[in-house]
Design brief:
Its cofactor is [4Fe-4S] cluster. The chain has eleven helices and 14 strands. By secondary structure, the chain is of the alpha/beta class. The protein folds into two domains: 55 residues, DNA polymerase, domain 1 (Orthogonal Bundle), CATH 1.10.150.530; 295 residues, TIM Barrel (Alpha-Beta Barrel), CATH 3.20.20.70. Strand 12, helix 9 and strand 13 form a beta-alpha-beta unit. It is globular, with a radius of gyration of 21 Å. Bound molecules: S-adenosyl-L-homocysteine and iron/sulfur cluster (SF4). The site of S-adenosyl-L-homocysteine has 16 residues, from strand 10 and strand 12.
């Protein structure tokens, strides 16, 4: 019988402390994994030999292999990973210029680094505009596989442990359809003895599984919430996101109203702008009304075309008009800069490679039409 080793990245510090005595060893292991990015137990010199052997026999560090890296003209890098069971998925490393004012009003420019992580191989939601959806659903990623994306991206880019990075769960998959593993990953990533990425710097983007938004809120993780709204009436939203038939706009808005929002933060509403579909000012007006009473900000995303897509990218002037309308009415609104579009690393352009071309997925697209969660 082949014994399957446990993934060392699956554990929070206190869980490792329970598993490996004496308890101070867990902190040492955390230091090797998350500060030194070590991926070989035998090199963890301050651990006794017997412990290194035990770890080697029972746990696995390298659970993901980088099989391809593509670098965009704008510096965005897309990583293709392979899992131990031979599946593949992508993560994206995005560098953005960030401008802030100091207390004297001087503009300080810095670089903001964001990791866009996958939470599933494929996705069940089946949105009409999304390339990930075309491949159907394969499986959830484990918490360790989510955490390891960060470690490998930090290691591959020589990012010093103390450098602040942001996490967005906006790669492949619907994070709230894998809530248990995603919430565990959020906790592991925020461990102060490890990567120390506070939940406040992690954002979950969801297509709107209303009861799971409520459940996430009750967990009080301190994580940021982004809602993929994309439409202001149910008929259109159901065409774009089939799951809207089960959880309509009002149910999503009601769930958001129960979500604990940090005093200095807002819930982000992502609005995918598609030419001649939802880019008119009447929609902007309805959006304003819909978000009334919510601490919200709107992020407009220009539709990114992909192979076989039936929609068109909107005119930038039209998107600006839409944004200006909302801003003038006092609603915070930004237009998302598309990063990595030349390497298909932008929103909605990620998809499993190789595998799905030869193997039919377990669940076809759009299986979330009914309340099955
Ligand atoms: N499943 C989650 C998170 C991953 S998708 C969600 O849907 O929110 C991350 C974002 O990319 C979502 O807002 C999604 O609607 C958007 N997106 C999907 N396809 C896109 C496309 N072709 N162009 C631009 N954005 C897209
Ligand atoms: Fe899934 Fe998000 Fe793509 Fe919709 S947009 S199919 S929820 S990954």
């Amino acid at each position: 019988m082949i014994e399957i080793k446990k993934n060392i990245y699956d554990y929070r510090l206190e869980e490792l402390e329970q598993l490996l005595q004496p308890i101070f060893r867990a902190k040492q292991i955390y230091n090797w994994l998350y500060i030194k990015y070590e991926n070989d137990f035998s090199k963890m010199q301050n651990l006794p030999k017997e412990m290194r052997e035990k770890l080697e026999n029972e746990y696995q560090i390298k659970n993901l292999e980088i099989i391809q890296i593509q670098t965009s003209k704008d510096g965005t890098k897309k990583y293709l990973f392979r899992t131990n069971d031979g599946l593949s998925f992508e993560s994206v490393f995005i560098k953005m210029r960030d401008k802030k004012q100091d207390e004297n009003g001087k503009i300080i420019e810095s670089e903001k680094w964001t990791f866009c992580l996958s939470s599933q191989v494929g996705c069940k939601v089946g949105c009409a505009f999304c390339y990930t959806a075309k491949g159907g659903f394969v499986r959830n990623l484990s918490s360790g596989e989510i955490v390891e994306q960060v470690v490998q991206l930090k290691k591959d880019n020589d990012i010093p442990p103390e450098k602040r990075v942001n996490i967005v769960y906006m790669g492949m998959g619907e994070p709230l359809d894998n809530l248990q593993n995603v919430s565990q990953a959020i906790k592991i990533l925020s461990e102060l003895d490890g990567l120390s990425i506070s939940a406040r710097r992690q954002t979950i983007s969801t297509s709107g599984i209303a009861p799971k938004i409520t459940q996430l809120g009750k967990m009080e993780l301190g994580v940021q919430l982004a809602i993929s709204l994309h439409a202001v009436d149910d008929t259109l939203r159901s065409q774009l996101i089939p799951m809207n038939k089960a959880y309509n706009i009002q149910s999503v808005i009601s769930a958001v109203k129960t979500f604990p929002v940090d005093a200095r933060k807002r819930v982000m509403f992502e609005y995918l702008v598609i030419k001649n579909i939802n880019d008119d000012l009447a929609s902007a007006k309805k959006l304003l009304k819909l978000l009334d009473g919510i601490k919200a900000k709107v992020n407009l995303i220009l539709f990114n075309p992909h192979e076989g897509s039936e929609f068109q990218r909107p005119e930038i002037m039209q998107v600006r008009k839409f944004a200006d309308f909302l801003t003038n009415k006092g609603l915070l609104c930004t237009i998302r800069e598309s990063k990595g579009i030349d390497i298909s690393a932008a929103c909605g352009q990620l998809r499993e490679k190789n595998i799905l071309e030869t193997q039919s997925p377990n669940v076809p697209r759009g299986t979330f039409k009914n309340k099955e969660l």
